[in-house]
Each structure stands twice: as structure tokens, then as C-alpha cells.
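A reminder from the course coordinator: this example appears on the midterm review sheet, so study it carefully.

Given structure:
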């Protein structure tokens, strides 16, 4: 009953969230080999930032997000792939969206940000989900139900500590891994040229958590530096000409974000 109420709440909330479909065809499988994107990940620059360190290594449970690989999960927790395979009795390299993996002896949790050479990205568009709770797997499935062929419409999602995800955890979308257009802002052609970053929360009612803003500032700085995106091309969804929305909400802390980007 409780789970049903949570899903109903998310469904109603997402009806009013700020995301917009793009117009390409494709398919994201519900399960992928752990080596599926290794070549792509190995050939990129990867930025890592520690989010938390336990007092001693501990066993944690990780829910597989869309297109995550064992390689990336191992980087997130500092645990070799072979240990994760052994702990979960994996007979092959297949892991599935929503699968719960035991991570033995996690040393830390790191946000892992992959960067791909490209001249495509000229803007960064910031969003809120318009929901009080959320995570990539839930929004991915909801966006699929709305007809978004690749599911999750944003390129990155920053969690707020709900539904088992860490506060400030950065989830990387399949769209980013495969360098596809977003489905977050039709106005101004931003689905094609703008990197979509969403923070879980409704910022017309409350402010983002401090951990979310720290992770956002890190992510935006990394992206602007790597892709040579000028600070004035970091926009809220509502600031894009032609967009009819108040996203990312009236309590979004623009002053702090702008000051951080100037440093």
C-alpha cells in the first residue's frame, strides 16, 4: 500500500515536471553487459569526487541505474569488479536496471563524471524535477511511459537523499553516456545543444540541499571547463527564450551558483 502511494505521488508530480521529448529513435535495454560501454568510458576523461567516506569499509547495497556498468560501479565504491561479481554470484556480465547489488567492503562513494570529446554542447540547462522525491530509475521509467524513447530526459540527475540514493549523488543518464540529445527543453533547440541537469526536488516549495548544490557546482564547473561553455550559457529552464515554465523554481539559489562559477 505504501509503495503504491509513493508511485501514485510520483506519477502525479511528474505530470507537472519540466521535461520535453526529443525526436529521435533508439532503445535502451533493461539489461546490459558490464563491458557494454567500457571502450567509451576508457576513452574519456573521468572526474571523480568523493561524496562520503565511512569510518571503515562496509557492505552496502547499490541499485543499478540505467546503463550503469560494473566498471563504473567499482569506481564509485573503490571495490574491484571481481569482488562485486563474487558477492552477487554473477555468472556473466549482465546487470539490470533496478537490480540490487551487494558491494562488499565499500571504501567510499564517489561521484564519477565521464567526459566525452565533443563540440556539440554549447549550453547547460538547469532544472528541478518538481517532485519531493526521486531517483534515476523511477524518472527513467516514467519518461519511457511518456514516450521518451531513451527514457530519462536529462543528461545528469542530482539526488536529494530520497528513495535510497545519496544526498548530492550524481546519476549519469544513458543520454550522456551515448552522447545523445536530451529531452528536457525544446525551446531554443536546447535538447540538441544543451546539457540537461536536473536536481530532485520542488524548488517552488523548498531549497535544494547543500549537498545537491555542492555537487551541482562541481558538475557545472567540470562541464563548462571541458566544453568551453561560457558562464552566461548556464541557464535555468525558464530563462531559455520561448520556454513557458518557472523551472527550476523560485527558491533555486542562483546567486550562490553564479558566484561559484565566477571563481
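Designed residues:
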Amino acid at each position: 500500500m505504501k509503495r503504491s502511494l509513493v508511485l501514485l505521488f510520483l506519477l502525479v508530480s511528474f505530470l507537472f515536471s519540466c521535461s520535453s521529448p526529443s525526436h529521435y529513435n533508439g532503445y535502451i535495454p533493461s539489461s546490459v553487459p558490464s563491458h557494454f560501454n567500457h571502450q567509451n568510458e576508457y576513452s574519456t576523461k573521468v572526474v571523480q569526487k568523493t561524496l562520503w567516506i565511512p569510518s571503515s569499509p562496509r557492505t552496502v547495497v547499490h541499485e543499478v541505474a540505467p546503463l550503469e556498468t560494473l566498471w563504473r560501479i567499482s569506481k564509485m565504491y573503490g571495490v574491484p569488479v571481481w569482488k562485486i561479481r563474487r558477492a552477487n554470484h554473477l555468472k556473466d556480465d549482465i546487470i539490470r536496471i533496478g537490480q540490487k547489488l551487494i558491494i562488499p567492503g565499500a571504501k567510499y562513494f564517489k561521484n564519477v563524471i565521464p567526459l566525452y570529446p565533443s563540440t556539440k554542447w554549447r549550453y547547460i540547462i538547469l532544472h528541478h524535477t518538481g517532485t519531493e522525491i526521486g531517483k534515476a530509475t523511477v524518472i527513467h521509467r516514467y519518461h519511457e511511459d511518456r514516450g521518451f524513447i531513451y527514457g530519462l530526459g536529462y543528461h545528469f540527475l542530482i539526488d536529494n537523499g530520497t528513495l535510497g540514493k545519496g544526498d548530492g549523488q550524481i546519476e549519469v543518464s544513458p543520454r550522456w553516456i551515448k552522447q545523445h540529445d536530451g529531452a528536457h527543453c525544446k525551446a531554443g533547440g536546447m535538447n540538441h545543444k544543451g546539457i540537461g541537469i536536473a536536481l530532485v526536488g520542488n524548488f517552488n516549495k523548498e531549497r535544494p540541499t547543500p549537498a545537491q548544490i555542492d555537487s551541482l557546482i562541481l558538475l557545472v564547473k567540470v562541464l563548462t571547463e571541458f566544453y568551453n561553455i561560457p558562464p552566461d550559457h548556464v541557464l535555468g529552464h525558464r530563462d531559455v527564450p520561448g520556454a513557458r515554465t518557472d523551472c527550476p523554481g523560485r527558491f533555486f539559489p542562483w546567486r550562490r551558483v553564479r558566484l561559484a562559477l565566477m571563481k
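The CA atoms of residues 64 and 98 lie 5 Å apart. Residues 117-262 form a domain with the Lysozyme-like fold (CATH 3.40.80.10).
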